[in-house]
Amino acid sequence: MSHASGASGARIADYWLHEQLPARATELAHRATHRMLPRSARIAIVNPGFAGVRVAEVQLMREACVLETLHHSGVPRVFECGVHERRPWVASEHVAGTSIEAAAAHRPMPVGDALAVVRDAAAVLAHAHHRGVVHRNLTPRSIICTAQRAFPVCITDWGEATMRARRTQSAGGGDPDGLAGGAGVLPRGIDRMVPRPCDPGGRFYRAPELAGSDQCDASSDVFALAAVMFEAATLVLPEPVQRFPGVPAAFHQLLASMLATDPTERPTAAAVHAEATRLAELYSDGDAAIEEVEVELVDISRAPPAPANLGWMPPDHMAAPAPDTQRRRRDS
């Protein structure tokens, strides 16, 4: 099928490989173009060092199954998959855009932009949670702003996604996240070997209940989204959660609720989407970065006022003598 195994310039099936892309240690990824179709793709194939390792193969195929199942414009599409030199490979949509990590690398994101990302990313997560999928490893690298796609935000890196979580029903008997008792969407048996998230930087954005455990539910994704966007808006991790100048109180309150230590106190992704939509409309013109402060305006075009009378007068013996008295003294 090709004359090389994963090197740039090689070919896998009908795809020509180009520059290498970031990928997990168990995989190699390249930007690729279809031999006949005007299609740009991301080809991910199991790393030769992990050939035959079941966990690595299952992780790659799980991500493909998740992407195929979600059917959301904020999730990369899967084109096809196969086996090359006894290693599974997946061709998915190559998402070109700016990650949150890059957007907030040197300065905080404008509040209006940050709210828009929270709104759109929460919509993607709400769709995934309704289908019974928990991302489990949201980081600033996995949330990408994509101006060229139909949906302005794309969430990538679904390799650690799981369906094992089941959230307790709310007091009203409803299931806001669609996880309680929902039918599985992954092929039978493919979700039994779920590796724990291995991105070292991702630990800063994981919910506290995940410390020392891989058990999570939809609320863990809500926490991670808030941690990522709190840092993007302030350049500081939410440790602890504190107010920052320029961040509106309503936006801070939304992030603080998403970062609640108790998972049951966090809003659902659908509720976050609704509230962020409302706030994004209020601050879409960029005025959100302006804090309301009471100030006294001074007209500097006028002459400065005379200094105030402090009530002090010189003693009588220090006062200057009258003019006629000075004249009589000179005459004498």
Main attributes?
Phosphorylase Kinase, domain 1; 9 strands; Transferase(Phosphotransferase), domain 1; alpha+beta; six-stranded antiparallel sheet; single chain
Polypeptide structure, described:
- The protein has 332 residues and is α+β, with helices and mostly antiparallel strands.
- The chain has two domains: 83 residues, Phosphorylase Kinase, domain 1 (2-Layer Sandwich); 192 residues, Transferase(Phosphotransferase), domain 1 (Orthogonal Bundle).
- 27% of the residues lie in helices and 14% in strands.
- It has seven helices and nine strands.
- It has a six-stranded antiparallel sheet with strand order 1-2-3-4-6-5, with helices on one face. The protein has a three-stranded antiparallel sheet with strand order 7-8-9.
- Strand 8 and strand 9 form a beta hairpin.
- Helix 3 packs antiparallel against helix 4.
- The radius of gyration is 31 Å and the shape is elongated.
- About 12% of the residues have low confidence.
Task: Give the secondary structure arrangement, pairings included.
Blueprint: E1 11-12, E2 15-21, E3 27-34, E4 40-46, H1 54-70, E5 78-84, E6 87-93, E7 98-99, H2 100-103, H3 111-130, E8 143-145, E9 153-155, H4 218-234, H5 249-258, H6 269-282, H7 323-331
Antiparallel strand pairs: 1-2, 2-3, 3-4, 4-6, 5-6, 7-8, 8-9
Q: What would a concise description of this structure say?
A:
The protein has 332 residues and is α+β, with helices and mostly antiparallel strands. The chain has helices at 54-70, 100-103, 111-130, 218-234, 249-258, 269-282, 323-331; strands at residues 11-12, 15-21, 27-34, 40-46, 78-84, 87-93, 98-99, 143-145, 153-155.
